[in-house]
Specification:
By secondary structure, the chain is mainly alpha-helical. It is built from 5 helices and no strands.
Length: about 180
């Protein structure tokens, strides 16, 4: 269940942000500060995900058998989705490099299309794994899981609205 939720969160994070941050550590430069801050953000996010996973686990009140089966589902998903996530990260890094090197928009758009395909593949795997997970739940647990998913969607919408509003403010301030 934990890994399933982690995979769900990772897929959501990738699809929401559309970018990942990669950098070298250099503590004496502004870039080093950025790397340090990025690590802190990642650690904070990890802690938040762990808390949310515990909350979900508690709300669903899974039996030991369900926990075991959920772990099996998780472990089956990891080898399927991990290579896709790694490829996504590489494609995102390639786009950054292409932009820095002044690549044509056509080439960048082609790489973006590849990223969209990878995201679709990841989402298909995620959906199948959620279906497998839901198949081990009781009707009451399914209802609670549905509520949890709705809450997550609502929070994601609110966060995206805030991001859009923030970007609009930035654009207005830069004029």
């Amino acid at each position: 269940m934990k890994k399933l939720l982690t995979l769900l969160a990772a897929a959501a994070l990738i699809s929401m942000t559309g970018t990942c941050v990669f950098a070298e550590d250099s503590s004496t430069s502004p870039k080093g500060d950025f790397v340090k801050k990025n690590r802190e953000i990642k650690q904070k996010h990890k802690k938040h995900l762990k808390e949310k996973k515990e909350e979900v686990k508690n709300r669903l009140n899974l039996s030991e058998e369900q926990k075991t089966r959920a772990k099996q589902i998780r472990e089956e998903a990891i080898p399927q989705i991990s290579p896709i996530i790694e490829e996504l990260k590489m494609k995102i890094m390639e786009i950054r490099k292409m932009k820095q090197e002044g690549a044509s928009q056509k080439d960048i758009d082609a790489r973006i299309a590849e990223i969209k395909e990878l995201k679709q593949k990841a989402n298909e795997i995620r959906k199948k794994n959620v279906e497998k997970f839901e198949s081990i739940l009781t009707p009451e647990q399914k209802a609670e899981f549905k509520k949890i998913k709705q809450e997550v969607r609502q929070k994601r919408r609110e966060m995206m609205k805030k991001q859009i509003k923030h970007k609009q403010i930035e654009m207005n301030n830069s004029k």
